Each structure stands twice: as C-alpha cells, then as structure tokens.
Amino acid sequence: MTIETTPTGILLLIAIMAVVTLVTRFGGVFVMSFVKINPRIESFINTMASSVLIAIVVPMAVNGDAGALAALGATALTMLALQKPLPAIAAGITAAGIVRYLV
To answer: What is the pLDDT of residues 64-101, one digit of tens each?
Structure first.
C-alpha cells in the first residue's frame, strides 16, 4: 500500500498515526483495567519508564556526535547536582546548541 505525498495523502497519514496512537493509549488503559495492581506489577510499571529512557539515551551516547555527548554530560551533571529535571534538560539543550554552533 502506498500513499501519495499530496496534501490529502499527508493528512491521511497524520490521521492514521493519530488513530494508532489513540488506540494504543486507550487500549493500554483498557487492558490494565482488568489487571489487579499488586506491588510487583506496580514496580514493573515504575521501572518501565526508566527502561524506555535508557533505550533512547544509550544509542545516542554510543553513536552520537559531539553535541549529543555534550548534552548527555551536561544533563547528567546538572541532574546529579540539582536533582531537578527541568534545569537538567535546559542545560542539555544549551550544551548541545553551543557545541553544535561552535563545531
């Protein structure tokens, strides 16, 4: 199946992606409504977010350019120092911007 890259085709692709996103989000909530939340499942759910974050960050750390590595380092150092995510994110974005501007 191919969809032409006309304005109508692009809108159709966006609509399909929106429907798939909504189905997966609502489907997850629907399925979890039948699951009894015990401490083991709660631990799994809490750890799942960290594993997704690690899956995103590790390839960037291994294959990233100088800007990505600077962002990773600045974010990690700021998070360790301040224990607050928003300043750490800002530091990472700033570091990546500065390094990519200079290099």
So the answer is: 999 999 999 999 999 999 999 999 999 999 999 999 99
Residue ranges per domain, the chain? 1-35, 37-103
Q: How far is CA 103 from the centre of its chain?
A: 26
Judge contact between 61 and 72, C-beta under 8 A.
Answer: yes
Element (H, E) at 12: helix 7-32
Q: Encode pLDDT of 16-67 as tens digits.
A: 999 999 999 999 889 989 989 999 999 998 899 889 889 988 998 899 999 9
Look at residues 95, 102, 103, 101 and name the one whose alpha carbon lies nearest to residue 69. 95
Tokens representing residue 94 in the block: 């700033």
Structure token digits, residue 91: 């530091």
| DSSP single-letter state for residue 34 | T
Cβ atoms 97, 73 nearer than 8 A: no
